[in-house]
Amino acid sequence: MIAWSLRAARDSGCFDRIIVSTDDPEVAQVAITHGGEAPFVRPAELSDDHCGTIPVIAHAAQWLAEQCERPTEICCIYATAPFVEAGDLRRGLDVLNSSGADYAFSVTSFPFPIQRAVRITPEHRLTMFQPEHAQTRSQDLDEAWHDAGQFYWGRAHAWIAGTPLFGEGSAPVVLPRHRVQDIDTQEDWDRAEIMFQAQHRADRMPTT
Questions:
Q1: Residues of the chain scoring pLDDT < 70
Q2: Distance CA 60, CA 57 (A)
Q3: What's residue 152's pLDDT?
Q4: pLDDT in the model for residue 18
Q5: So what's the pLDDT on residue 204?
Q6: Into how many domains does the chain fold?
Q7: What number of CA atoms fall less than 13 Å from residue 151's CA on the CB side?
Q8: What is the pLDDT of residues 168-188, one digit of tens each?
């Protein structure tokens, strides 16, 4: 998975340096093998399961500053995003620069109106999150979007200042749902393998 993200970054032509932030020597070696850098070891306090993205990128930005390098734009690409594409990274940088936003990151639409979502109660019954929309037609509800979990372009000063990602300071880079699959669970992995095979079959199909 790391190799796919690194290849997309290289192919985009957007970056002066492609740095992998990790505390794992094996991951660092994979990064180097596939054209990235691993010039520092991420500190332990930024390597647990609860650390957010912003402190990790801020640490990398501050490390660069200590090396007398001061990038103006920094992109965080997740290693758990095997469908990230070079063209989307270029488009994200264009959106960041044209919008004047602090961040520009990948989003995709929910396949079903979130206003009609239901929860399963402890009694194993169903209740609506927004019962006022029980009779609202789906086509009359606002479309909703979610973080696609692929990449986050941001201005270096925003990362370092800890500016929140989710808010009016961010601009969307819209991706189609069929190219979005974050990987956190075995089910995510299984679905990603099916999506990957389908995409590569489509790429090999002859055109007329």
A1: 200-208
A2: 5
A3: 98
A4: 96
A5: 62
A6: 1
A7: 31
A8: 999 999 999 988 888 888 998
d(CA 157, CA 172): 19
Amino acid present at 149: G
Give domain status of residue 86, yes or no. yes
Cα 169 from Cα 119, distance rounded (Å): 31
Q: Do the beta carbons of residue 108 and residue 131 sit within 8 Å?
A: no
Here the CATH number for the domain that contains residue 182 is: 3.90.550.10
Tokens coding 59:
């640490």
First to last CA, the chain: 33
Instruction: Output the six-digit token pair for 20.
Output: 């992998």
Q: Give the pLDDT of residue 184.
A: 82
CA pair distance 180, 58, nearest whole angstrom? 26
In a domain, 68, yes or no: yes
Residue 120 lies in a domain: no
Domain of 42, in residue numbers:
2-109+146-204
113-146 pLDDT per residue, tens: 999 999 999 999 999 999 999 999 988 999 999 9
- Structure confidence at residue 207 (pLDDT): 55
* Residue 172 β-bridge partners: 105
Closest Cα to residue 91, out of 109, 107, 80, 79? 107
Residue 33 lies in a domain: yes
Strands 103-109 and 170-174, sheet pairing:
parallel
